[in-house]
Amino acid sequence: MEKRSEGRGEIIIDPTLPIVDAHFHLFDLPEARYMFDDYLEDVQAGHNIVASVYIETAGFLRPDGPEVLRPLGEIEFANGVGAVAASGRYGKTLVNAAIVGHADLRHGNAVAELFDRGLQLAPDRLRGFRQVALDHPSDEPYKFMLAPPPKGLLSNAAFRDGFRHLAERKLTFDATVFHTQLADLIDLVDAFPDTTIILDHLGMPMQLGADGERAERFKHWRKEMERLSERPNTRCKVGGLGMPFSGFGFEQKQEQVGYRELADAWAPYVETAIKAFGTERCMMESNFPPDGYSAGYVPVWNAMKYITRDFTANEKADLFHRTAMHTYRISVPGL
Fold first, then answer.
1. Which domains does the chain have, with CATH numbers?
2. Where in the numbering of this chain does the Amidohydrolase-related domain appear (predicted)?
């Protein structure tokens, strides 16, 4: 993530606009480290980040005990970081104000105990769960994944048995899929109309190896996004375009990437999604540190602000903090 810290000299667009970073990660792996102090460096670099939503990485798992319950370790970790941030000692940002934990829903009905014990451990922050469901017929995207998810997850019977336990606990589900899987996601959404399902990373438009097919793939993505947006129990996270899957190639550039270059490339996707879902169902995300492969934290947020520069103040409030606050039940003083 060599580009993660780049762009901190950029002038901050609309510096007072409150932002709830709706999607970020913390992890400590042999391949990469991004922990509380690293995130603080980013959020304190100029943008008005008032809170953030921690999204699981299936990290910090308990080393023993029933496999289905091992993700409790990550919930404990994330909740501890949230408590440290809430003390105010490390700045104003409510880091981990909401937590989305990991669950392997293929355990079926057994995940009910995980949900209940997670809520006991972090009643003020645990708001939902995620299980990455990325699945693609070609091998190309898997070279960017440390641990490829199981195939056919969304239609797996045991997965759906576990999924049905979310709604009764008012827990959300973050859906991480490629745009080629949106039809399968729509089927899941229709099967569980009482569960709030949040689409991560704009549905991850898959453009690796597209060559001359970029326009056709964009049309397919747009059509499926419009179909998904017709379901009222869905929300959309706007971001994630800094990962290699979108095919912009910023991660390969040696020179620093600024917000205007990002905005020019990302605008068609951002504008299409917001038009489909409406600002009241869209929320902005940094997706850091993965998006840090393409550009720094400051340029990423500047790009989103620049793309939406002509939106009304009310629409910007929806996009940059209000939708995330409502969806994840986050309270920020003064907002």
1. 19-328 (3.20.20.140)
2. 20-330
Following CA atoms 10, 13, 14, 17 in sequence, which dihedral angle do they give, to the nearest 10 degrees? Answer: -80
Joined together, the tokens standing for residue 278 give 């409406």
- Reading the block at residue 190, the tokens are 């229709």
266 closest CA partner among 223, 216, 308: 308
Residue 133 burial (CB count, 10 A): 23
d(CA 168, CA 119): 13
**What would the DSSP string read from start to end of 161-201?**
HHHTTTGGGT-EEEE---GGGHHHHHHHHHH-TTS-EEE-G
Do 293 and 1 touch, CB atoms closer than 8 A? yes
**Residue 233 one-letter amino acid:** N
Residue found under tokens 């999204």:
55
> Token pair 């670099």 is at which residue?
45
A 10 A CB-CB count for 28 gives: 11
Closest CA to 299 of 253, 235, 332, 245: 253
Instruction: Note whether 291 and 240 are within 8 A (CB).
Output: yes
pLDDT digits (tens, 9 = 90+) for 33-78: 999 999 999 999 999 999 999 999 999 999 999 999 999 999 999 9
Cα–Cα nearest to 243, from 262, 228, 229: 262
**Amino acid at site 135:** D
| ω into 268 cis (within 30 of 0) | no
284, 238 in Cβ contact below 8 A? yes
Amino acid at 160: R
Q: What are phi and psi of 215, to 5 degrees?
A: -65, -40
Tally the residues of the chain. 335
* Dist. CA 287–CA 240, nearest whole Å: 6
Burial class (CB in 10 A: 0-12, 13-18, 19+), 208: middle
| Full-model pTM | 0.97
